[in-house]
Amino acid sequence: MKKIRFTPLFFRRIHKWVGLILGVQFLLWALSGSMMALLDQEKVGGHSAQASHQHALPTGDYIAPAKLALDGPVLGIALRYLAARPVYEVRSATGTRLIDATSGAPVRVDEQVARDIATTMNEAPIRKATLLAGPNLEAREHEGAMWRLDFADAENSSAYISADTGRFLVMRGDTWRTWDFFWMLHNMDYVHRASFNHPLIIFVAFGTLWLSGTGFYLLFKSFSRADVRWMRRRRKPAVKVNVG
């Protein structure tokens, strides 16, 4: 078996290929950072902010929470509006239930309820309503089943409504989607688009460190005595010759 010699030529060859591979990622990193900086911050941030539409509950007789037909221990109860309708949001170990605050009947967040909630967030016509069993990439910060309502507006906006609580989760548009694509390239998380601690970015970080170290080594080895000869000439003292 031929013995590997760790010569400058050996490191130069590896340095060249590692530099090429990491250079592609550096190019994507610079490109994605520039594009994210150029996008309209209001359109990007505005679609990721959670809207809040609060209404004062009308006066009237509501069923006392103690009289609700509940199974098991309750973790919390909240009285709120759901599409212009007062409901109790009951949280327990098994999940969240919605109960009509005046009749005590169970409330289900169906497509019509989801549409009513979404129209309070966007006045554009709704093109399509889809029930998702779980979050997609656009709503990855949230959990559980949810409704996706697509609007016919300039941004091709999509509102996400929780199928369990009927709460508005998030609004996404084309500007945010463009930003999210470049965000994926920037943090190198090509699957979840959320983490800075995944194996790929750690590999690139150590690869960059190795590239810097070998680059400095090769730079040092590339110098010869001829490169520093001019310095020695400047330091050489002048010799005076006296004649006669």
Automatic annotation (TrEMBL):
It holds the Pfam family PepSY_TM. InterPro entries: PepSY-ass_TM. The chain crosses the membrane at residues 200-220. It comes from the Bacteria. Keywords: Membrane, Transmembrane, Transmembrane helix. This is Putative iron-regulated membrane protein.
